[in-house]
Design goal:
Layout: E1 11-14, H1 17-33, E2 40-43, E3 45-50, E4 58-59, H2 62-70, E5 79-82, E6 86-90, E7 103-106, E8 122-126, H3 140-145, E9 149-153, E10 156-165, E11 168-174, E12 177-179, E13 182-184, H4 185-188, E14 196-198, H5 213-220, E15 229-231, H6 239-251, H7 257-267, E16 316-321, E17 329-334
Parallel strand pairs: 1-13, 1-14, 14-15
Antiparallel strand pairs: 2-5, 3-4, 3-11, 6-7, 6-12, 7-8, 8-9, 10-11, 16-17
Length: 337
C-alpha cells in the first residue's frame, strides 16, 4: 500500500473493517512521516451517562468509544484527519448545504489549537450534487470553476445517542466528515471511483484482503478503466501469483451456491414434468439426500429461518438449543406433504 506509483487519491478497498482501518492508519502515518505534509487530528469528544435524570455525563470510557465506533448509525470517526487536499464525505444530510455521502475537499488545514474549540468551523469545498470523483487539480479556483462550493462545517454536537449496555448511553461530538482513504467492499458498492487499490487472498483472513468472487466482481466495476485498479502484492508474491489468485477466486462457488444446491436436491421431485408423470423409470419416491449442513448455510445459525410446512416436500426435523440453559432442548419438525 506504500508503493510510490499508487496515486494518493486511490481508495483502498478491503473485505473487512479491520483491513480498511489498518490501511487508513498506514496511509496517515506515511503522511505524518513526510515533513512536507501537515496532518491535524480532530479527536471526538465522547460522553456516556445512565438513564436516570440525575445522572451526570462523563467522558466516554473505552467501552463507550468502542461501541460508538462499531455502531452503524454513528458515521463520524473517533479521529478525523485533516491534511491538504484531503478528499472526504459528509456523514449526514443538512438540507440546503450538503447531503450524506456527498464529496468535499479540505483545501486549508485547520490550526491545532483552533480545532479544539467546540464552536470552531472547518472550511471545505462541497462537490456539485452527483459528483462521485474528485478532480486531480484541487486548487480553490479550479474547484470553484467546476461548481464546488465553499461551506463552513460545525461539529455535530451529540445528535445521536446509543444504548451501549445496561441502560448506559453514549454519544459523540465530532465534525460530520469521514475520510475517503479506505473503505470496505460493501461501502464501495454503487460508487464510481477514479482509482482503487486492494489485495487479494485465496481465503478469508484477518488482514481483510478480498477473498470472494462477488467482491472481485464489485471491485472490477468500480473504475472506468481496468488499469486504474492496483493489486498490491505482499512479500515475494509476483504478478503471476496475483493473477492465479484472482482466477482461483473467480472460479470458486459463490456463498449461496452449496446451500441452494442442497435445497434443490431436496425439492428436486417438484421439477418432474407432467409428461414424465407415471412414466416407467421415473423415480417419484426418491428421498432426501441428507442433512443441510451448517457449513453450507450462508447465514449464522441464530439467523436461520425455522422451517414450516411449505418449505420442503419431504419435511424437516430440527433441534433448538438454549445457549443460556444448555439443558433446554427443543425438537421440532414440519410435516411432509
Amino acid at each position: 500500500m506504500d508503493d510510490p506509483s499508487i496515486p494518493q487519491d486511490a481508495l483502498r478497498i478491503f473485505g473487512t473493517h479491520v483491513g480498511a482501518d489498518k490501511a487508513e492508519a498506514q496511509f496517515i502515518n506515511k503522511l505524518k512521516a513526510n515533513k512536507s505534509y501537515r496532518v491535524v487530528d480532530a479527536v471526538a469528544m465522547d460522553e456516556e451517562s445512565l438513564r436516570t435524570s440525575i445522572s451526570q455525563r462523563k467522558p466516554g470510557t473505552e467501552r463507550a468509544v468502542k461501541a460508538l465506533n462499531r455502531n452503524n448509525n454513528i458515521h463520524e470517526p473517533q479521529i478525523l484527519h485533516f491534511y491538504a487536499d484531503a478528499v472526504m464525505e459528509f456523514t449526514y444530510n443538512k438540507p440546503g448545504f450538503w447531503s450524506q455521502g456527498q464529496l468535499c475537499i479540505c483545501t486549508d488545514v485547520p490550526d491545532r489549537k483552533s480545532i479544539l474549540d467546540n464552536d470552531y468551523q472547518v472550511v471545505v469545498y462541497a462537490a456539485p450534487v452527483g459528483t462521485k470523483v474528485a478532480p486531480d487539480c484541487k486548487d480553490k479556483n479550479n474547484l470553484i470553476s467546476l461548481g464546488w462550493k465553499e461551506v463552513e462545517v460545525d461539529c455535530r454536537k451529540y445528535d445521536q445517542t446509543i444504548n451501549i449496555q445496561n441502560n448506559t448511553f453514549a454519544r459523540r461530538n465530532q465534525f460530520p466528515l469521514h475520510s475517503r482513504v479506505a473503505a470496505t467492499i460493501h461501502r464501495a458498492m454503487g460508487s464510481n471511483l477514479n482509482c482503487v487499490v486492494t489485495q487479494v487472498s485465496k481465503t478469508k483472513n484477518d488482514a481483510g484482503y478480498i477473498w470472494d468472487r462477488g467482491q472481485v466482481v464489485v471491485l472490477l466495476s468500480r473504475t472506468p478503466r481496468l488499469r486504474n485498479i492496483y493489486f498490491v502484492t505482499g512479500g515475494k508474491v509476483n504478478k503471476e501469483e496475483v493473477a492465479k489468485t484472482l482466477l482461483y477466486i473467480l472460479s470458486k462457488a459463490p456463498q449461496f451456491y452449496n446451500y441452494q444446491k442442497q435445497i434443490i436436491e431436496r425439492t428436486g421431485i417438484r421439477f418432474i414434468s407432467e409428461a414424465e408423470n407415471g412414466v416407467e423409470g421415473v423415480d417419484r419416491t426418491r428421498t432426501s439426500k441428507g442433512i443441510i449442513k451448517l457449513t453450507s448455510h450462508p447465514f449464522w445459525p441464530m439467523d436461520f429461518q425455522l422451517p414450516d410446512d411449505n418449505i420442503c416436500l419431504h419435511g424437516y426435523v430440527y433441534v433448538l438449543l438454549s445457549l443460556k440453559t444448555l439443558k433446554s432442548v427443543y425438537l421440532g419438525s414440519c410435516k411432509s406433504t
